[in-house]
Amino acid sequence: MSRSIRGLQPVLGVLMLCCALPMQGCFIGGMVENARRDGSIKREVQAEYDGLEGKSIAVVVNCDRAVLADFPTITNEITTRMHNRLHEARAAGSHSNTDQLLAYLYNRPGWHTRPLGELAKELKVERLIFIDLQDFRLREPGNTWLWEGVAAGSVHVIEADGPAPDDFAFSRTIRVTFPDDQGTGPSQLSGQVVASELLRRFCERAAWQFFKHEEEYYIKY
Questions:
Q1: How far is Cα 148 from Cα 156, in angstroms, rounded to an integer?
Q2: Are residues 22 and 95 in the same domain?
Q3: Distance (Å, rounded) from C-alpha 68 to C-alpha 91?
């Protein structure tokens, strides 16, 4: 009997190893999945539109009047943040001076009614990024107790040096929310914090369209 048991030991060892390997694989897989969920592991995402490379650009922003009534500086903030983010990522060849651009548009209040290809030529850029912000609010209408922030709009690209300079060569809809946890109110976060994070998230998602970047596997917004 003892000889038989000794003869079976190698077989038993192989069987135990075979059972342990799937369990180890499940354990490691679970660790990786947890890291993905908490944002420790990110994934590389390619640009949706790579036509800014080597080109001169300007970012212009059009906001819904109701949004401007509540957030009068939001046009300037999105314009500045977008230019800065694209400059940091080296997504384009050159950028318009933000202060000069905003002054130029301020002195021409009807600019958004004109063909965008014409505006791009006046600004002397090859690519015009046009952001149309349609919604920016901190809470649902009638709800004064909880924050339910939303920022939504669209981002487009005009290729001024292309065959159709007045048509959109690229378009994407952007929508972000904040806070992530339901039931958050003014006692936990101020309105300024909510607005700032909404603005950051919207600009980040809009800018991501134009360069390779890293995102969380399960992005919250």
A1: 26
A2: no
A3: 29
